[in-house]
Every structure is written in structure tokens, then in C-alpha cells.
Design goal:
The structure is a homodimer. In chain A, about 40% of the residues lie in helices and about 20% in strands. By secondary structure, chain A is of the alpha/beta class. Chain A has five domains: about 130 residues, Rossmann fold, CATH 3.40.50.720; about 140 residues, Rossmann fold (3-Layer(aba) Sandwich), CATH 3.40.50.261; about 160 residues, Succinyl-CoA synthetase domains (Rossmann fold), CATH 3.40.50.261; about 110 residues, 2-Layer Sandwich (Dna Ligase, domain 1); about 110 residues, ATP-grasp fold, B domain (D-amino Acid Aminotransferase, Chain A, domain 1), CATH 3.30.470.20. In chain A, the strands form six sheets. Chain A has a seven-stranded mixed sheet, with helices on both faces. In chain A, strands 21, 26, 27, 28, 29, 30 and 31 form a seven-stranded antiparallel sheet that branches. The longest helix of chain A is centred in the last third of the chain and has 18 residues. The interface between A and B is large, with 95 and 95 residues.
Chain lengths: ~700, ~700
């Protein structure tokens, strides 16, 4: 719960600054909406040129209102807003919603203006929604500060949208569908109040059972994950992210000026935060409807009861896409089904009652199918037939659903002929869809919610005995160095206990020979220069050096090669490393995402990463559970785990390395990129070794 | 064109056998539909108990009709249909549509009945649609033999569905949407007339511009591919396949008794036939609408003109999923756009005119955006705003689209408030959708159609000088052998010129030594037994044998190992093969699909096939173009083509091997499976070698 947001949704009084008498103006629409939805508080239109607007008294300025004002809705040209916000602050207003555009979304000048007003808002300890938004609705109190035409039904969906247009589109789309909302709000530029704030607020709102969010860009990425992880254990949050693709991100960033971030980071954040992601507006609404009205199933086994096989097949395909399987009905169920259905009916799953099936057959089939212990949920499908009344079928579905505690979704195909059936189903909180292909994602959302509820609260993370101060010393030794080669990065990683292959930096041939003798032949030697990070390309690596003669020869060659590649390179010497035992090579790394912070990558090296993009991303700080799931989510994971007679590799050592990497990058924000490539993983029990690494500082 | 199907759609007279007076009966609905849609031919209801039905004369039997009857629609209990069909045949009826169920879909007895009536139909040289269907509509002539309530608008979409229910659902769904159909027909069990027949028929129908098909199972797979390949060069065909997943296939096969076939075979057939596959009913209708009304774009660069950024981002994501890119507008276009749009508008692509944009701004933006040479097509997006009239925006879109020869799709979000705009847009043949996420697949369908039109007719395929008769001799030498080991399969492959590694079958140690000397050491030896096909598992392979001593020792070991694995195995000797040079290993193989025939597989060996399922399937006969595209469609293809400094391998040799395999399996239907694993591909120019193979006969 965020009490500072309450005045936006439960204000005792609202001022509309810039209210107009002209019905063609949006600001007139706001006054109209405030008056016509049952809002019980005081309404103060503010406009120095008017006496009355829509029959209520108008004030010349907010300071001239004698009463207390909780919320001010501002719709005035951008350049006059600074002054008005100041007046609001002085008046003791707690919350302002700025509808007007002309800020960050129009470029540099607008950005400046936006920064100025947000400074002012903070100075007066106010909160602000917008600018560049269409306002908010609290359906249960009748508060409506938008100029959107129409309001949806009242229900449990809290709908959040960065885009006001998407809010308006949704209101229009759900008209007459009976899908119910608790709140509907647009956040615009999110100069102050963000999606994450709203998720936190709606999590504590008793009228909201599910949160649905249309997201373009997240600014407070780390908090977004933490809030999600907390909220989704009890209340589901469905998200639709626009700008998944490079093309889409371009569209988003060009219009709101928000940084879209990389979709890999968003996917990781959704997974870690327990958010359920969908890809279309329709799925967003359908999943929210299902989560609002029906409780999650106990398992993933669904039964289909239908009057036609074709749609059942389409539904099954959709199930399969979402990890839902067709339940195996037990023999008794089949016998009971056969008793009343058409003798030619299919009494296996899908239960196909054939075209003529009427309401009593639906009632019978659903009753017995839902009672089967192998069934966790049901989809009832009707293709309208001329002799069957969809309304009666809807009633049969409602009755069966109400007698069972398993979730039921209805799919009545068609449009015109099933409208009345939809109204009845929705009035009884049974979600109805038009096409069977929409069902899989809805059941999936319910199952994901159940899994979230079962998720254990994770205990404290982080390792002890790791020293930030030592890293600080290392970093400050090279204050202006951006690209850090292996020979320097090794020391940083070592501080956090990462398993670096044994090695020495040698500045001369005798030093190199001495180091090699200490390490024991064979050794690997590599040129050490922060100016030459791609050592193999520069032919600055020699492996399996067996004696001092070979070492000396290779030393000279590498020095020559490095000179040739970059004659200005500062060469710090040569790195002499022990030859590592055979193993499997993996890549781990980190890149700091502007919205979410440290995005950590894991993948099995070589073509798996390069050709198949078989990599997993998560956002630090990582926990053991997240790391475990991260590694398992790659396809190549099986190659580590005893693939076809190969040895099993030390996955525990990878997990440990990822945990240490996570803590290193969390505690040292100056590091903007790290790559450990390869981390050679040895057979189980033997650990892993960092064979090469580099990093980039801010 | 299939003239034998014309009587179904342009009959001069129709008998409805089993017509009823009772308005609660489906057969009454058929008479009503026949009467009320403008059909101009004669209608003869047949029912021995009635004189008049719905005011027209009823006949006791079809033989009592004095006039000629072209089409008979039969709706009677299954067991009485045999007799009626006989009467139809004797009467000279050309086409029968059997609505009644109770045939193949109900099990064995029904299957028998179905076989009997189809024999009769063929005897009288009639054609039959059904049984177990809901009949057909020809919208342009008013013929309507269905009992579906309502008819859609007239237009260019020929809609084919195996499922009658899906037909009915579609009619209901498109009511009042203005999407137009030429034909709408359900095929039921397809005892005679199949989807392929209908595609061929509609290809020749001048009122049909696009064919849309809902498919459960295809029986005549090879013809389906050939017809598609021919038809789609001029007329697009969009398909929705139910039963893609194992779950979905189960649903299909349980209800119609049709064999769903493996989805890999379907995907191959759609690719080879030029069919455009979609995954939802909504996409099927939307793509058909777009293909009916607008011509394909010249390229894949789209512009979005919108009054809101959020939906534009969602559209862009959808573009990206379908290979469509956002056009780079040229500078002059941007200048022209800026002239009339809101100064804060985004004049880059997406062109975001901001919330207040009115019709003149849409007109202006679309005109200049469509005129840009970098733009191939446009999506116009409107999120309804309280001060903007959707109808006027629709008119602006229509005018701009009509002045340009580039395709335009409109996305007016919402439902209630945009209904009138939809009517106007559709009346002017501009496709309108509700959600931006629907746009990508539609543009993709248009582009795929353009590509199909540009596709060259492929010249004759097939190799000469390959001998079926030689294979016949080889096969008949082992008449009862089902599993063929490498030593026998080699000879079969050799006949078709596949590059078998050099080798000899030896029955004794002296023979083996002699063979090895002829081949030259080192050699590989393998146990030769049709009873032990997994030679490595049985430790019946030894590689890199360098001399006769080693050979003798390995020979004895392999013999012992084989005895131990299967003491009853008939051992034909040992195969002595030359050691092959280094290369890349690929798998090629064939499995005969019950619907489509020889399904040929290609993949790069090892984990690529086993872990990543990175394999491609096509249906033989293959052509050089198909083979080329098949190999390129795997991700691992790059590994053959000079990956990161590795040599480029002899892809031409793989293509040649696939071509020979294709011809072998086409010409020798007794072979039901072949696997060549590995085919070792040598560096470019050096060819490839079959290192192991086996096959299974019927």
C-alpha cells in the first residue's frame, strides 16, 4: 500500500484547473465525467473567466477555493503549469494529475519544463500523475478525472496504462461485455507516479483482485521486480509490453521519449517478479477477466466439453502451446457420460456431444467431467446451431460451474447470436470467449497465479566475506581506465572468490620462465594489454607450452604480433597460466541495463550462444533459486547434466560463480560490463575455472 | 477447374431428400434457406408423407420428379441413405450432398456404410460432398443447402471447412462485418470430395479471389501439394490447421476418425504448396479479407500513421514477428508531414499525430507517407477520442488509400464507437481490424502472395539413369525381410547413385584381410546382421584398424559381442570399409507419412538434431529449389557454409544425395523408412560419403 497515492483515488474534493464551458473542449468532458458517475465529494472547476460550468460554481483560482482540496486535475497549456502547481502546493493539495502534454514527449525544452514541475511537486510533498495522460477512474467511488467517453462495469480488474489511448481503447472495447474494473488509469510520462507505484497501491486495494498493466518502459526496474515478487504472491499481475522487438521499441521511444530497454531485461524482470506476460490486448483483458472471476486450478489437466470437434482441436492446440494437457477421463466418468449423451457422442476427452447437443446434455457432461478426479478445469465450447438456444446452454454452464470448485471457461463461437449468452455468463462471473484459440493463455495465467501463491518467500541472499573495499582499491589504481583486460579483471574477480585459473603476470622472459616453472608446464601464455582485448584475433595466445624454449619463442612471437596489431598499445607483459583440465565451456557475463540494472547472462559457449542464441538472462541480485532456474531454462543445460554417456559437469560451481558475479556487480556499480568467457566447467565435484575475462567501466 | 463439381454450386435444380414440414427440424431449415436467398433454379422437396413444404410442392421420391435433378441434398438416417443414393444414380443426378451423420465418425459400422455408399456414388459417376456436413453456399447464385442461420455478405472469399461447426461459427462471427464470401462450404467426412478438390474448383471460379480453408486432416497429400503449388501462383490460399499439437491431433482424430498426420508433414506440405498458414480463426478471416480486397505490396517496408504511440508499438512488434520493417521516411516526406501536423507530432515512422489528430491530419499524413518511395504499405491507427469522429477518419483513410496503389489497413481500436466506421471502410474494401497486434500477419499474407506470384514454374525434376528394376531385384532377394542393415541397404542406395563409402562384405577372417588390403589400411569394420541394427550399442564397430593383426583381433571381438547381444542373430559377416576423411556429419532420411507420402528429413548430426530439433522436413518428390531452401532453413546450415574460419563443406553433395534419396523413395513405395546417419560431408568440392544407413520395408 502506498498511502501517498490515496488522494488520487479517494479524494474528499477535486479541483479541475482549466475547466471549460465549451462542450468541444476536453476539460469540459472531465467536469461532465466527474458529475455523472456518482462521485460524492466536492467538485471545484477553476477558470477565471467563468461563473458556472455545467451548473456548478466556478472559481477564479485554486487559492480562491475556501474548502480543502485533495486532488487537482490540471489541463492548461504546458507553460502555465509551473505557476499553477505552486499554487496547489501552497493551498495544501496532496495530489495533482496533469493531463496536458507538451513535456518530455516533445523534446528537450519539454523535458526541462517537466523537471522543473517535478522539483516543485516534491518541494510541496505532493504526488503527481502525468503529465501527458488522460487521468484516472476509481469505478467503485465514481471518481472519473478522464475525458474518456463511457465507463466500463465495476469489477476487480485494476487497469494501468502508460498510454492514455490504450485506456480509451479498452473502455470502448469492453463496452457491453460486462468485464469489470476497479480502477482504470493512465500514467502518461510518469514524471512521478510510476507503474510500480500503482501496482503497489492496487495490491493494497480491497476492490482490486487482479492488476492488468500495459507497459511501454519501466524506469525503476529493480523496484519493479521487488514489488512484483511481493505482490504476485497474493494478487496476480498481467502485463502487456509494447516494444518487444527492435521495431516496436523504436515506436515506443520515438513517441514518449521513454527508454524502452532491452526486451531480454524485461523478460527476466517479468519472470523474476512473478508477472504474467501476454502479447496482445485481447489476451490482457481475457486473462485479467479469468483471474478476477475464477480461482486457479489444482493442476494442468483440462477437459473440453463441446458440440463440435473442430473447435476442440483448436482449443487443444492452444492448450499445448501453454503447457496444459487433455485430462484422461476415468472409466466411470465415461460410463456416466454415455448414459445421457447421443449414442454416437465421443465420451473421451474432448467430450464431443455432436451438433444437436442441448442444455441438458451440457449440464450432464459438465457435471460428470468436472467431478472426475483427473480433471482440474473445463472448457465448455458451443458452436451455435439453429435448434439450440445459446442462453440455455449458458445457464447450464453456469449451474455446472457453480456446483464445482474447478475453474470453467465458456467459449461460445460467433458474435451476434451469443451476445445475450455472454451477458448472462459474465453476470455470473464465468469468462466467455469468442474463439477456442484464446483459451490456453487464460488457463495458463490461472496456473501461473497458483504457482506464484505456492512460491516460498526466499530467505536472505548474498554471500559474506566478500570485500567491496578491496575492489575499490583495485579500481582506483587505474582511475581513467575504461577497458580492463584479463590480467587486471582477474584480480577483481578473485576478490569475490571467483575461481580464477592459476597464473602470473610476467614482464620479461626470465620472469615468464620463472612463473612457468612455479606453475608447472604445460602452460598457456597470453599478451597482457588493455588496448588489445581480443587476444586470439591478435594472435596473442599460445597454448600447451611445454618447456622454456618454447615459452621464449612464443613470448617473442606474441610481443611481435601485438605490436603489429596496435603499435601504440601499452603492453603490460604476458600472462602465464596453468593449462586447465578438460571440461565444458560456458559464458557468464553482465551488462548494466539502464532500466533494470545488472543483467546477468548465462549460456553454454560456442555455437549454442552464437548460432542458437540459447542463453538465459536474469537481473541481479540473484538468489540460488533464480540461478538454478536460469541455468535449467537453457536447452543446452542437458549437455552439462550427463548427456548421452558424457560426464556430468559441476553445475554447482557455475551456480556459485553466478552468485559471486551477482554480488560483485551489485556492490560495485562502476563496473558496467563483465564477460567471463570461457568459464571452464570441470566434471562434477571438480569445480570450474575462469579461463578468460574482461570488463568495461563506466 | 474441376467441372464435375459444378453441379454442387450451379445446379439448375436441387432436390432436398428428407425435407420436413416441422420448423424444429434441420431439414426444414434447408428448404427455408434454399427459398430465401435468391436461388433461381427448381427446388424439389422429397418426403412421401407431405404434399407441400413451405408452400412448394413435395414429391414422394426423387424418381417421381419429372424434371431433371442436378443436385440432391440428403438428410435422412444413415441406414436409409444407400437406397436413396441408388435412386439418385438411376435418376441421373450428378451431385449429392449428404448432410446426415452416422458414418466413419461413429466407428467401424459407420465406416463400412460409408464405403458402401461411396462405391455406389462412383458406380453412377456422381460426386458426393459429406457425409456428416452442413452443406454448401454459393453466395453469388443464392444457392444455400445449409441449415445455418443467416448468410454473410457477398465477396471474394471462398471458405472451405472440414467442420460444419466452424462454418456456422464463421457465419455468425462475420455477421454485420461486411467481410464478403463467394462460397462457404463444409466437407464433413470427405468420403469423396476433398479440400484439394475444392481448392482446385475454386481456383477456377471467377468470383473467388482468395481461398480460406479450415483443415483437420488431408487424405490426398501429394495432390494437395501439387494443386497448391499450381493454384497459389495466381490465387492465394490461407489455411488454418487444427491438431498441430499432439493434444490437438488427439482431439481431431477422436471426433472425425480422420488421421491427423504429423504436423511436420503438414508444415512441409504448406511450404511446398505455397499455402499461407495461420494459427487462429481470427487470423484466417483477417488474412482472407486483406487478400480479397487489397493487392500485395512491392516490398516489406511499412509506415504507421497513428494518433497514439502505444498501439503503434504493438503494431511494430507484430510487424517484427512477421518480417515487416518500419520504413525509413525520406527527409522531404518528413518536411511535408510537419507542414500540417501538430508541431509536437512525431514526423518520423511511426507518424504519431498525437491524440487530437482529426480527419484532415490523417488525410495529409497518409497522402505523404504513401507517396514516399521508401514505403510499401501503410497501417492507419485510430484510438477513438471524444472530439474525433471515427467515420470521418475512415473516410480520410479511404480517400488516401484510393489515391495510392499501395495497400492500406485500418486499425480502429474499440468496438461500439467504431462500428459505423468499419461498415464504411469495408464497403470500400479497406480491411479494418480492432487491435494493432492483428496487423503483422495480414501484411505477411499479402507479401507471401506476392512471392508466390513471382515464383517460377519449376522445370522437370528427376534424374535419369536410375534403375527401379535393379532395386526390385535387390528387394525381391529378401522377400520377407523388414529391417535391412547397412550391408544390404548400401546396395540399394548405390543403385540410385548415392555416394557410399567404399567397402566389402567379408564372411571369414581371410576374406576380411583380403578386403582390407584391397581397400588399403586404415579401415573400419562393422558387424553385418539385419538382426542387430544398433551396431555401436552392440559394440560391433571398430575404427581405425591399421593392420591385419588388429583386424583379426577386432573381427573376433565383434563376432563375440554380437553373439552376446543376440545369440539368435543371423550374422551375414563383417563389413570392411575405408576410413573416411574428416568432415561434417549430417543426417538424411525418409519416413512415409500416411497422408503425404515420403517425408524427407535433413539435419546436422548430433545435438543439433537431438537437443535443438534443428531439422527440416519436405515431402518428396523434391526439386532442386525445394532442397536448397530445405537445407538453408536449418539454423545449423551456417556451420556448413564456412562458419568462423572453418572450411566450407560440400553442400552441393548433400543436395545431390537428397535428390537421389527423393527419387529412390518415390520410385520404390515398398521402402517405408530409410536413415542415412551419418552422411559425412567433406570440404567443398570433395563430395560426401554415406557412412551408415539402414531401412525398413512395409
Amino acid at each position: 500500500m502506498l498511502p501517498s497515492l490515496t488522494p488520487f483515488f479517494e479524494p474528499a474534493s477535486v479541483a479541475i484547473i482549466g475547466a471549460s464551458k465549451n462542450p468541444a473542449k476536453l476539460s469540459n468532458g472531465i467536469v461532465k465525467n466527474m458529475l455523472s458517475n456518482g462521485y460524492k465529494g466536492n467538485i471545484f472547476p477553476i477558470n477565471p473567466k467563468e461563473e458556472l460550468i455545467l451548473g456548478i460554481k466556478c472559481f477564479p483560482s485554486i487559492t480562491s477555493v475556501n474548502d480543502r482540496v485533495d486532488l487537482a486535475v490540471i489541463i492548461l497549456p504546458a507553460n502555465s503549469i509551473h505557476e499553477v502547481i505552486k499554487e496547489c502546493g501552497e493551498k495544501g493539495v496532496k495530489a495533482v494529475t496533469v493531463i496536458s502534454g507538451g513535456f518530455k514527449e516533445v523534446g528537450k525544452d519539454g523535458s526541462e519544463l517537466e523537471k522543473e514541475i517535478i522539483t516543485l511537486v516534491k518541494k510541496y510533498h505532493m504526488r503527481m500523475i502525468g503529465p501527458n495522460c488522460v487521468g484516472t477512474m476509481n469505478l467503485t467511488t465514481g471518481l472519473n478525472t478522464t475525458f474518456i467517453r463511457g465507463v466500463p462495469s465495476i469489477g476487480g480488474i485494476g487497469f494501468i496504462s502508460q498510454s492514455g489511448a490504450v485506456c480509451g481503447g479498452v473502455v470502448d472495447h469492453v463496452a457491453k461485455q460486462g468485464i469489470g474494473f476497479s480502477h482504470l488509469l493512465s500514467l502518461g510520462n510518469e514524471a512521478d507516479v510510476s507503474e510500480t507505484d500503482m501496482i503497489e497501491y492496487l495490491a493494497g486495494d480491497k476492490n482490486t483482485t487482479v492488476i492488468a498493466a500495459y507497459i511501454e518502459g519501466i524506469q525503476d526496474g529493480q523496484r519493479f521486480i521487488q514489488v512484483g515478487r511481493e505482490v504476485t504472491r497474493s494478487k496476480p499481475v498481467v502485463v502487456l509490453k509494447a516494444g518487444r522487438s527492435a521495431e516496436g521499441a523504436k515506436a515506443v521511444s520515438s513517441h514518449t521519449g521513454s527508454l524502452a530497454g532491452s526486451y531480454d531485461a524485461y523478460k527476466a524482470a517479468f519472470t523474476q517478479g512473478g508477472y504474467f506476460e501476454v502479447h496482445t490486448t485481447k489476451d490482457l483483458l481475457n486473462c485479467a477477466m479469468a483471474l478476477d472471476w475464477i480461482k486457479p486450478p489444482e493442476g494442468n489437466r483440462a477437459v473440453i466439453v463441446t458440440n463440435s470437434g473442430g473447435p476442440a482441436a483448436l482449443a487443444s492446440d492452444s492448450f499445448s502451446d501453454h503447457g496444459i494437457i487433455l485430462a484422461e477421463l476415468n472409466e466411470e466418468t465415461k460410463k456416466s457420460l454415455a448414459e445421457k449423451l447421443n449414442p454416437a457422442a465421443q465420451v473421451d476427452n474432448p467430450v464431443d456431444m455432436l451438433g444437436g447437443a442441448a442444455e441438458d446434455e451440457y449440464a450432464h457432461a459438465l457435471e460428470f467431467a468436472l467431478a472426475d478426479e483427473n480433471v482440474d478445469m473445463a472448457l465448455a465450447v458451443l458452436v451455435p446451431q439453429s435448434l439450440v438456444d445459446p442462453v440455455k446452454i449458458a445457464q447450464a454452464i453456469i449451474e455446472a460451474a457453480q456446483r464445482s470448485d474447478k475453474p470453467v471457461i465458456a467459449c461460445l463461437m460467433g458474435h451476434e447470436s451469443v451476445q445475450q449468452a455472454r451477458e448472462i455468463l459474465h453476470a455470473n462471473k464465468i469468462p466467455m470467449i469468442d474463439f477456442p484459440t484464446q483459451s490456453g493463455v487464460m488457463f495458463h495465467a490461472l496456473i501461473a497465479h497458483r504457482d506464484n501463491k505456492l512460491r516460498h518467500k526466499e530467505s536472505g541472499r548474498g554471500l559474506t566475506q566478500l570485500g567491496t573495499s578491496m575492489v575499490n582499491d583495485l579500481l582506483s589504481a587505474h582511475p581513467n581506465l575504461k577497458f580492463w583486460g584479463e590480467h587486471l579483471t582477474r584480480d577483481v574477480l578473485k576478490t569475490y572468490g571467483l575461481p580464477i585459473v592459476e597464473g602470473r603476470l610476467a614482464k620479461t622472459i626470465p620472469e615468464a620462465i620463472e612463473s612457468a616453472q612455479e606453475l608447472g608446464y604445460p602452460v598457456v601464455i597470453k599478451g597482457a594489454s588493455n588496448d588489445i582485448l581480443h587476444k586470439s584475433d591478435a594472435r596473442a595466445v599460445a597454448v600447451n607450452i611445454k618447456d622454456s624454449n618454447q615459452l621464449e619463442r612464443s613470448y617473442r612471437e606474441i610481443m611481435d604480433n601485438m605490436q603489429r596489431v596496435n603499435s601504440k598499445a601499452v603492453i603490460d607483459g604476458l600472462l602465464i597460466e596453468k593449462m586447465a583440465p578438460e571440461g565444458k565451456e560456458v559464458i557468464i557475463g553482465m551488462k548494466r541495463d539502464p532500466s533494470f540494472g545488472p543483467l546477468i547472462m548465462f549460456g553454454i559457449g560456442g555455437i549454442f550462444v552464437e548460432l542458437f542464441k540459447d542463453v538465459a538472462f536474469r537481473i541481479a541480485p540473484l538468489t540460488p533459486a533464480i540461478i538454478h532456474q536460469m541455468i535449467e531454462s537453457t536447452k543446452a543445460y542437458q549437455l552439462l547434466n550427463g548427456w548421452r554417456g558424457e560426464p556430468a559437469y559441476d553445475i554447482q560451481a557455475i551456480e556459485d560463480a553466478l552468485m559471486r558475479l551477482s554480488q560483485l556487480v551489485i556492490e560495485n556499480p562502476a563496473i558496467s560490463e563483465i564477460e567471463i568467457n570461457p568459464l571452464r566447467v570441470l566434471p562434477r565435484g571438480d569445480g570450474a575455472l575462469v579461463l578468460d575475462c574482461r570488463m568495461i567501466l563506466e
